[in-house]
Amino acid sequence: MSDVNVLTVPGLWNSGPQHWQTLWEAKHGWRRVQQRDFDHPDRDEWVATLDRAIRECATPPVLAAHSLGCSLVAEWSASTGGRGIAGAFLVAPSDVEAPDYPIEGRSFARMALSSLPFPSLLVASTNDEYVSVARAKEFADAWGSSLVFIGDAGHINGASGHGPWPEGEALLLSFRA
Q: What average pLDDT does range 49-78 have in this prediction?
């Protein structure tokens, strides 16, 4: 399995030191897609940065996205045709169309709901403040993603107690295989 590269794709405000993305990068040597400004995303700039990071990979990577990073993957796929990756592991997608979504992420003012041309697994919580159960199902259906609900898990980040998140790591490693 070590021949499959993983790129982590953080969302708004990046992923801190206790976030599963950060911990998995350290454990596995995976690389983060570094945006110029995680606090004030520019959709077009973020899409271009993701595209560049994918093209720099020696082999097609699996994208491990969180929150607004999921919207970014969908937007990148719609903008570029979605070629060059092995698949996408999409965790806790944020609903950028929700009226209470943070203003800083509004450059992603609409959700890209085109079918993804690569395998994808969407992992969601039943009590995420940034996406309802119904919208998570809608995203999975539109994207053609397999969908796994992990119960009441908040936004599935360090703040919700999902630091190392071994269950998520097992899901990703199984998906990646």
A: 97
pLDDT number for residue 49: 98
Q: Residue 107 in contact with residue 114, Cβ under 8 Å?
A: no
pLDDT of residue 177: 87
What does the alpha-carbon distance between residue 70 and residue 125 come to, in Å, rounded to a whole number? 14
Percent of the chain whose predicted confidence (pLDDT) is above 70: 98
Delimit the domains of the chain by residue range: 16-176
CATH of 16-176, one of 2.120.10.30, 3.40.50.1820, 1.10.260.40, 3.40.50.10330: 3.40.50.1820
Q: Please report, for residues 40, 69, 172, the alpha-carbon distance to residue 35 in angstroms, rounded to integers and kept in the order given.
A: 10, 11, 23
